[in-house]
Amino acid sequence: MKSTILACALSALCASSAMAKTYDVQLHQSKTNPHQWTGSFNLSQPTPWEGQYFSDTYNFTPDLPGALTVNGGVVNFFGFDEQKIRFSHVFLNETELALSSSDGESKARLANVVLSGPLSLRVTGWTGDSASYSGNFNITTAVPEPATYGMLAAGLALVGVAARRRKAQ
């Protein structure tokens, strides 16, 4: 009897974790600024896996190096209860986004948060029968300061001087 209950519990656990959805979001580089990237997505009718509960994960590619300044969030606009999504948690790389809900919209957002890649967004909540949500994230990669280039030039000059002295001896 105990083994049957344990087997049922394990199969339910495995089945529920398999129902979480994972999506890939392509980041697009700005044509005018190589340090600016944007990624957006739209999900029509999240697939609930336990009642009306859903769990979605978005992986952003390519993996951007260094410190990233991120702005953005997810939003659900609704007119009727069956179109409403109630976000329970939204995390971008373990940083929780601020949740809010007002008349006709539910949203989660963050502003000027510094993270490192790869970026992964996890969205969980409860969905209406015909609900959808979308998201947009703007990402700025680290821009070297002018002093960094000055130090690089000075270092290369020192290496050149050392090589010339070694060659002369």
TrEMBL record:
Keyword Ligase carried by entry: no
Domain Ice-binding protein C-terminal: 142-166
Superkingdom, taxonomy of origin: Bacteria
Protein keywords: Signal
Signal peptide residues on this chain, from the entry's feature table: 1-20
Keyword Signal tagged: yes
Pfam families assigned: PEP-CTERM
InterPro entries: Ice-binding_C
NCBIfam families found in the cross-reference section: PEP_CTERM, PEP_CTERM_FxDxF
Protein name: PEP-CTERM sorting domain-containing protein
Organism per entry: Duganella vulcania
